[in-house]
Amino acid sequence: MTRYLSTSAIALCAGLGFATAAFAEGEVVVYHWFEYIPQELIDKFTEETGIRIVMDTYDSNEAMLASLRAGGMGTYDVAVPGDYMVQIMRDNDMLDMIAEGELTNHGNILPEWLDVAYDPGRQHSIPYQWGSTSFSVNRDVYDGPINTTDIIFNPPAELSGRINMLASQGEVMALAAIHLGISMCSPDRGDLQALNDLLMGSRQHWLSFNSDTAREILVSGDAAAGMIYDGFSARARIEEGANLEYAFPTQGFIAWMDNVVLLKDAPNRENAIRFMDFLLEPANVGMLTNWTQYSAGIAGVDAYLDPELSVQPERNPPADAGPATFIEVCDQATQEVHDRIWTALRR
Amino acid sequence: MAGGAASGGNATSDAYAPARGWLLLPAWLVLGIVVLAPIGLMLIYSFLTKEFRGGVIWEFSLEAYDQFFFDRGLFGDESPTIQWAYIQIFWRSIWQATLATLLCLLIGFPTAYFIATRPANQRTIWVFLITIPYWVNLLIRTVSMRFILRDQGPLNDLLQWVGVISEPLTIINTNLGVQIGLFYSYLPFMVLPLYAAIERYNFSLSEAAADLYAPRHKILTRIVLPAVKPGVIAGCILVFVPSLGSFLAPDLLGGARNFMIGSLIDEQFRGSAGNWPFGAAASMILLTLVLLVLMVLARQQARLEKGAS
After folding, report:
1. Which SS3 state, helix, strand or coil, does residue A30 take?
2. Rounded Cα distance, B270 and A330, in Å
C-alpha cells in the first residue's frame, strides 16, 4: 500500500519542486524501500548540505528493477538494492563507477563488507543496512517451538491458514530451498520438482502474500505468523507491543545487505556522492540504525547506538540456529522455472 | 441518451458541415494519444520476444499467447495441454466483477429511485452526499475498508456487541473481502447513471398503470425498468469494466493470495516475472473480452432504440 501512496506523494513533490526550483544546491533523487529512512536523517542532510532529497519508494527489489528498466534510468540518482540485486544491476550495466577517492568516508566501510561478491571492491555501492529474513510468530496464539521452517511449510493447526508470506519471489523461494536443504538455484530437475511440490502443497496454509503490510498484519492479529525482516519484527514488538517472537530456524535463514548504489545517468551525480558520503558517517548511520533496528556495515557506529539494540533477541541467534545464507542469482533457465512456480502458486 | 445527441447533431450539422472535420481534430488527437497509441504499443509488444528480467527483444514471437493458452509442464518441454491457470484467474475476475455489478445494481437501483423521487430542490443534496466519499483517493478508501473489516475491527466489534455473532467473522483476505471492496469502490458509478435515467422518467406513467390496476411489481418490471434500461446498461458497464481490471481490492482486501487479472498483469511488469510480452498479451485478451461484452450490450441498446422508435 505504501508504494501507491508514495508514488503520488512523490509526483506531487516533484511537481512542486520543479515549480519553485528553490534550493540553490539542487536535489538528489533517491529511489528507496518503503519506510526505510527516518525523516530526521533526511532533514539533517538538507540542513548540512542544502541539498533537498526527493524520494520515491518500492516494496521489492524486483519492482525497483522493473521500474528502472521501464524508463526510470536517468530519473534517479541512487537506489538501495539488496545484495543479489546489486549483482543483477551491475550485470545489466545500470550502475555508475565510483572513482577512488571520490567518497571521503570510504575508509569507514567495515573490512568484511568491503570486498563483497556482488560488488568486488565496492566500485558501485556502499553498505546501507544488513539483517536477516525469517518469520515471526504471535506467541498469544502458539506457544510451541518455532525455530524450524516447518512453521511456514508444515505449520501446526493453530497457525495453519493464518500465515502471511512476503510478496517477494526471491525470499519465498530461498526459504523453501533452505527448508528442503537444497541449493537455492539448483538447476537439478528433481530439486526443482521438489521445490514446486513443497510450495504447492504448503499454499493451503497461507493467508496472504504481502510485503508492505507484513508488520501491520502481525500487529493487528489478522495473521498469527508471517515472514518478516528482523528489524521489522523488533519494531512491531517494541514500538507496537505485539507479542511476537522472531524465529531462527535450525535449517537456516536468509541474510541480506541493502546497499546504496550510484545509478548510471544520474541527473545529480555530485549530490548523489555527497549523499553517499553522508551515509558513511558513523553518527548518521547510528541515527539510521537506531530507527530501522537493523545493523550497520560502518566502523565506529557502535558509540551512537542505543544500548538495548545489541541485546535484542531479533539480532542474537541462539546457538542451534542454522546458517544465514544470501540469496543467489539464478541462471535464466532456472529462474524461468521459478517464475512458473511463483505464478502457479497464486493462480 | 444517444437519441437526444443524435437529433441535436442533425439540427446543427448542416450549418457547420464544412468546418466539422476541423472541429473534431482535438477529439481525434486526444483519442489517438491516450487511447489508440497505448493499445497499439501493447498489441505490438504482445507479439515480441521477452527479454530476461524485463524488457523486449524486437523479434516476432507468439510465445506470450502460447504461454497463456498452453501448459508445457514445469520445465517447458512437455507436449502442450490446455493451460488452466490463467483461464482460472480470468474466470475468477469475471465472476467477481459480475457479482459486484449485480450487487451494485441491487443496492444502487433503490438508492437512485429514492433520490429521483425526492423534491427537485433536495435531489442535488442527495447526489452530493453520494459523491462525498469519492473525493478521497481510492487507495485510502480501500485501506480504510481493511481497517473496518478486519477480525478485530469495528464491524466485528459491533456485530459481537449487538450479539449477532459470537466469534469474529474473517472477511479480510477472502473473496468476500474483495467483493465488498469492489462493491464499495464502484457503487456511485451505478447510482449516478441510474439516477439520471430515473429522474427523466415520467412518473405519471406509473400512476396511469396503477389507475389501470397494474400491481406494483408489474409497474416496475413492465413500465419503469424498460424506460430506464439505458441507465441500467450504462451503470453496469461502468461498474463491470473497472472491477474486472482492479488490483487494489484483491491486493489489499483479498491478501493477494489469488491473482486477479489486474494483479497478474501487474506482476509481469513490476514483479519478478518481468515478462512484458506476456503482460501485454494478457492485457490484449482482457481488452478483447471487454470489447465483446460492450458490443453485445451496445447491440442490445440499438435494438431497444429501434423498438422504441
Report:
1. strand
2. 19
Question: Quick one: pLDDT at residue A22?
Answer: 44
Can you give the residue range of the structural domain that contains A328? Answer: 131-255+318-345
Which residues of chain B neighbour A339 with C-beta distances below 8 Å? 272-273, 275
Q: What is the pLDDT of residue B39?
A: 93
**Cβ–Cβ of A5/B139 closer than 8 Å?**
yes
Q: Give the position of cell 491478501.
A: B255
Shortest alpha-carbon distance between residue A169 and chain B (Å): 7
Q: Could you tell me the CA-to-CA distances from A253 to A131, A134, A173, A245, A321 in Å, in that order?
A: 11, 6, 12, 15, 8
In this prediction, the residues of chain B whose per-residue pLDDT falls under 50 are 1-11
Record the pTM. 0.82
Domain with B270 in it: what CATH number?
A: 1.10.3720.10
Interface predicted TM-score of the whole assembly (ipTM), two decimals: 0.78
Q: Contact A340/B267, CB-based, under 8 Å?
A: no
Count of the separate structural domains present in chain B: 1
Whether B19 is covered by a domain: the verdict is no
Answer whether residue A4 shows pLDDT above 60: no
Q: Flag whether B58 is in a domain.
A: no
**Which residue(s) pair with B56 in the sheet?**
B50
Residue of A nearest to B142 (CA): A1
Interface test with A, best of B272, B275, B276, B278 (most A CBs within 10 A): B272
Looking at the predicted structure, is the pLDDT value of residue A33 above 90?
yes
Please write the tens of the pLDDT for every residue from A221-253: 889 999 999 999 999 999 999 999 999 999 999
Q: Tens of pLDDT along B238-274? A: 999 899 888 888 888 887 777 888 888 888 887 777 7
Domain total in chain A: 2
Q: B269 and A342: CB-CB below 8 Å?
A: no
A190 and A322 housed in the same domain: yes
